[in-house]
């Protein structure tokens, strides 16, 4: 049962990371334009360097 | 801003490291002078469109940043004050994209959907917590015992308590609001079940009990929040689309100060200002005509199709459309005081059909909430008498509350309305009000307005065959010299019939009168009856006079809106009563009613007549759907059980109605009645499924056989069944 002291914190931390990631995407307005984002990925406009 | 700056290429010179902050300050100061422009782009659909529009806009001098939102089909532009939105529209139309300016102030309220984000955040927390707790619960169900089980329960409690405290807030607030107003709603049993489950579980854990309902409390919150979020999305989409319609009319006016034109926001106009109204635009104020002669289209205000002559000294009200010559107007009422606004205020006074309606969910809650509470209390009392054990009895009571908790009920309505609204939206109908679908399902009488609703509101030449080719050639030549709607109708009809314009010279347009020219040495005129010297007709007409010959009458009829005939036929076939109420005169109304086969109609209706008719219909027990577009319809739209207005309708009419028709076609109206009836029966079906599930699960809970595992299984399966049933509507 010693393994539980490792496994439970790990599972909680991993889940927590997912939650933090979601909160970050929500805060940075990444759900404002789902249709546009799915199309923008096809554009090669910023392939060579990121948008300044 | 600082993020954007810090991403810039690092400077080679170490001394310049301090420079970015100075740049940032300068940029921020400049940003204050910037303006925000929103453009509606209805035709964009792919990545090529996005990059074409963005690169065109970004390359325009003065534009700081332009970003396209494909979901909303909109472009947001940050630009310097000097950039004129009209130039950007022309720029985009030049590269082949239809664009319209949107009023930024109107769309701002939905630009960031705060309530939606808030719900989504709570949903995410509930989802995260319920997954983790479920993981621990499965281990307990799989056989974890003694110290391990207790530890798992304590960890669950540590996750559940803060998660519920945060995610459950919308329910707690609603329940508190209802209770402090002395009412019961669906949120009361929800809150009670969640709180009792958590408290009982903590107690059980402290006493090393076998069963804890932490996972049930969390999944319950998660499913219910999902229902709330669906509900919110549906309405947010409709609201933002409705607001976009309103934002399309940017409230601008041209003010004349000492003879110079100045474009200002309509809200900035003051009494006594001189306003210029160009042909084709809508008058922004109530006032008196100072200079200019023209004709006014009043159809949106009164339903009349015949344009009215306008001359200096005459009164003009906000909302009337200037047709031919430019007019200058001295404002004597602006903004909220215009007759347009006062009329719109009538709507608020007229008793609204929607306030009388109690939604199906509320009616279910009224039956359900007391039932559940009584059941739970009875099982507690029963068990306490039988076992004399407070802990067992409370456990049973909590189990009953959790099992009966309206998880499926909370999803039953939003899932169906989301599916039905989505289906109607794809057909071009925007459901604005939450109970509009339910009210639409009960409709048995449909009342239509004529001008702009059943008809396009644009005239069509109706007696082309009666004229000699020579007359038509002259009429066409004269009509092409004017942009008056009747002239345009003659041009369209004559061109379609293959007529070539006659050779005429010296064409002059007399605003408010007609067009005059010389043809083979004779004066030819096309215009109003009093100018030509003819008797006034009973239908919309223009007259042609060649030299001193007798005047020739060109008669016009209003063109039927696409799908109008099919809609009327379908409604009558479905056994609905169809009534036509119009503010127009007898002849055109009778003519239209006969063409469409409407038996019940009334002409020369005042707004009050329409309202009275709707009210007497409602009083006699009919459920009335009102379809109208004008200011004279708004009171009737608000009083009817449910109302629809086309997108071309006046803003006030769209606000007053529950549903907006986005396309030009009227046929979705008949479909929507069918969809609404299907949706309502699906909602009732979902209620029945939820009840059936309770009939099976509740006895188990009462006799004390419901374990947390059974509760979790029953709750999830009923929620999934209800959602799937709703999806059948799509």
Automatic annotation (TrEMBL), chain A:
It comes from the Bacteria. InterPro entries: Cyt_oxidase_maturation_cbb3 (IPR004714). The chain crosses the membrane at residues 6-26. Residues 30-52 are annotated as: Disordered. It holds the Pfam family FixS. Keywords: Membrane, Transmembrane, Transmembrane helix. NCBIfam families: ccoS. PANTHER family: FIXS PROTEIN. This is Putative membrane protein. It comes from Donghicola eburneus.
TrEMBL record, chain B:
One of its GO terms (cellular component) is plasma membrane. It comes from the Bacteria. One of its GO terms (biological process) is copper ion homeostasis. It is a multi-pass membrane protein. It is found in: Cell membrane. Residues 35-100 form the HMA domain. Keywords: ATP-binding, Cell membrane, Ion transport, Magnesium, Membrane, Metal-binding, Nucleotide-binding, Phosphoprotein, Translocase, Transmembrane, Transmembrane helix, Transport. CDD domains: HMA. The chain crosses the membrane at residues 123-145, 151-172, 184-206, 212-230, 367-386, 398-420, 687-703. GO terms for molecular function: ATP binding; ATP hydrolysis activity; copper ion binding; P-type divalent copper transporter activity. PANTHER family: ATP7, ISOFORM B, CATION-TRANSPORTING P-TYPE ATPASE-RELATED. Belongs to the cation transport ATPase (P-type) (TC 3.A.3) family. Type IB subfamily. This is Putative membrane protein. It comes from Donghicola eburneus.
